Amino acid sequence: MPGELRWFARVGDEDVEVESGEPFEHDGETIQPKSRTFIPARLSDNPYLANTGYEAILQGLPEPLRSQLLYGDFTIGVGDDPWQIIPTDWVRLAQERWKEREKPGEPMTCLGVDVARGGKDRMVMAPRWGNWFGELAKHPGKAVTDGPRAAALVVSAVGGDKSVPVNLDIVGWGSSPYDILRDQGFSVKGVNFGEGTKARDKSKRLEMRNVRAEAYWGMRESLDPHDGDDVALPDDPELLADLTAPKWKITTQGVQVESKEDIVKRLKRSPDCGDAVVLANLKRKGVFVG
Fold it and tell me: Most Cβ neighbours (<10 Å): which of 7, 33, 252, 287?
């Protein structure tokens, strides 16, 4: 509550709430807690931000975040975290549409591929036919021990059709299967989420800091129930969790979406399903559009 004093200490790699400000011993070290409180404020109360053009940025944000930050009233639009990039209800609506529709009788529009190699992470592939996404193919890391095996799974997913567009995450383990598929003549495009971009949102008001922001904001716009793409997503609880996990913030370089590494630290697992679907939906210059 506003003005309420609470105490936190850094124990190992985590912030832990404690009962008071009294120092305590942990692993032979004396730890001194620090207090935190919440003071409601409007933008106009902050002289450092009020005269920087920040208000114009806030006015361009989607509701309810726009009113929450402009007026300092976080009781507006309670529900999801205000910085959650994709609203939970939007994903659920897309999953309900999927239950009601049949797979389109047309060639695959795109395959999104999030690559893993060994370890506990998985390689996940998301096929898309227009605005209808098929069930996700999930392969444990122990089954994808090298680039050729990952490439073989992609070939199988597209039925050997070299004309099917494939958007593949080339960061980390993805570079090897990308090279193999490219050399074999498949229609594969490498996607680097950390790469810079000049993309903006539909309103042209918000700049995107990198391709990750561009891809996730594009997924948000596709799922918008008012003017989106009428997307249908598979009824997969893990996909729902992954798409609604990332948070975002405004920086001087534009919209920044929480990194995969930070999500892993918070969720204790990798959001592979969400990344695969976002890759399949990515619409940008140099990457396949459907």
Answer: 33
Decide: helix, strand or coil at residue 132.
strand
CB 100, CB 86: distance < 8 Å: no
Q: For 213-235, write each residue's pLDDT tens digit.
A: 999 999 999 999 888 999 999 99
Which residue, chain included where needed, has tokens 């730890």? 31
Q: Which domains does the chain have, with CATH numbers?
A: 6-36 (no CATH), 40-78 (no CATH), 81-290 (3.30.420.240)
Read off the pLDDT of each residue in 252-262 and give the average, rounded to a whole number. Answer: 92
CB-hemisphere CA count at 13 Å for 203? Answer: 9
Which spans in the chain are helix H? 47-50, 54-59, 65-71, 88-100, 147-157, 175-183, 211-223, 237-243, 260-267, 272-281
- Strand, coil or helix: 10: strand
Per-position DSSP letters for 237-256, written without gaps between them: HHHHHHHTS-BEEEETTEEE
191 to 95, 171, 258: CA distances (angstroms): 26, 8, 17
Query: What is d(CA 59, CA 4) in angstroms, rounded to the nearest whole number?
Result: 30
